[in-house]
Amino acid sequence: MLDIKFIRQNPNKVKEGCKNKRVEVDIDRLLEVDKKRRETLQALEDIRSQKNKANKEIQEAKNKKEKDKIILKMRELDKNSDRLTKTLKELEGEFNNLMLQIPNLPLADVPIGGDERDNVVLREWGEKPKFAEHSLISRP
């Protein structure tokens, strides 16, 4: 599996490699999903940070009114966190599915093709054995 950093830095090279192996993968969609996934993850981390800060504020709050205000804020953060977690799970599923479709890139001297029928014989070693048509079947 290719590293996502490599794919981000070399999208055209990856597209060309997929084309040469005759594998249809939407690299642009992969990069779009990756960007959304990273943004969602960052937003989720920000919410977790705000929740930690709110927990400290609750401990330092002087009266019940302040605590209730902070608790309401935390409930709203929890709702957003749940929504983002669900979104992140969906994005990661699509991301992983697309990543698994991307083949390793072939070297420049590899013949273009999708399977072994497109390969080229470079050299053969030794003589090929010659068998009678039914010699393997008629053994006792």
Provide structural commentary.
The chain is mainly α and 140 residues long. It has one domain (4-118): Serine-tRNA synthetase, tRNA binding domain (Helix Hairpins, Orthogonal Bundle), CATH 1.10.287.40. The protein is 63% helix and 0% strand. The chain has 4 helices and no strands. The protein has helices spanning 4-9, 11-20, 27-60, 64-101. Helix 3 packs antiparallel against helix 4. It is rod-shaped, with a radius of gyration of 28 Å. The two termini are 48 Å apart. The model has no long low-confidence stretch (mean pLDDT 89).
List keywords for this structure.
140 residues, mainly alpha, 63% helix, Helix Hairpins, rod-shaped
Write the layout of secondary structure elements.
Blueprint (H helix, E strand, L loop, with lengths): L3 H6 L1 H10 L6 H34 L3 H38 L39
Helix pairs in contact: 3-4
In short:
The protein is an all-alpha fold and 140 residues long. The chain has helices at 4-9, 11-20, 27-60, 64-101. α3 packs antiparallel against α4.
* SS summary, helix count: 4
CATH superfamily: Serine-tRNA synthetase, tRNA binding domain
Number of structural units classed as domains: 1
User: End-to-end span in angstroms?
Assistant: 48 Å
Strand count: 0
Helix content: 55-70%
User: Over all CA atoms, what is the radius of gyration?
Assistant: 28 Å
Helix and strand sequence:
HHHH
**What is the fold-level CATH name, i.e. the topology?**
Helix Hairpins
Share of β-strand residues: under 5%
What sort of overall outline do the alpha carbons produce when their principal axes are compared? rod-shaped
What is the overall pLDDT average?
A: 89
Task: Just give the CATH class.
Answer: Mainly Alpha
> What structural category characterises the helix and strand content?
mainly alpha
- Reported CATH architecture: Orthogonal Bundle
Ranges where pLDDT stays below 50 over 5 or more residues in a row are none
Please give the largest β-sheet.
Answer: none
